[in-house]
Amino acid sequence: MDTQWLEWVQKLQAIAQNGLTYARDPFDIERYESVREIAAEIAAVHSHMDVQYILNLFAGEVGYLTPKTDVRGAVFREETILLVKERGDGFWTLPGGWVDIGESPSEAVVREVHEESGYVTRPVKLLALYDKNKHAHPPSAYHVYKLFFQCEIVQGNPSDSIETEGAAFFHKDRLPALSLPRVTPAQIARLFQHNRNPAWPTEFD
Length: 205
Description:
By secondary structure, this protein is an alpha+beta fold. It has helices at 4-22, 26-47, 51-59, 105-117, 185-196; strands at residues 68-77, 80-86, 92-93, 96-98, 119-131, 144-156, 164-171, 203-204.
């Protein structure tokens, strides 16, 4: 899949957002707003989404633009891994989500796993740090870094949440349909390999 356009969109949006953060001259502000509009138009053409919707996403960003941080918990039980079913698209993923302001990535993954699966866990190792653009995810308006933590269950039972409707363990050869914006089959396969090889170092792009 050709994602060159997505890289252009993200870079143009970063130029626009960072320029709007520091610009004081009204003409400069107008120019940066035009750059943001061009980025939204490119994204709309290639993603078949409404240009105003994308522009609103871009306009909602404030301050110097940097990649967002998404954390995912890899919780293993023997030869299976914990997945949760997303209400939004009906597909399965590793429990996780955005890191909130004021919390560390490890704190965020504990919170997300608990909220989405019902399990209280303890992070034991950062298995991988991936640049979402370099993996087979669908196009996204945001540049995202994905952190995959191996977590051990401390206590709890599977439960639903506002965002999820199901939490279960799956064998690597019997995975359900995955929510590709959140996790890919190749990433799941790699996490199983890390679990079988605990001496492996953290993997990163």
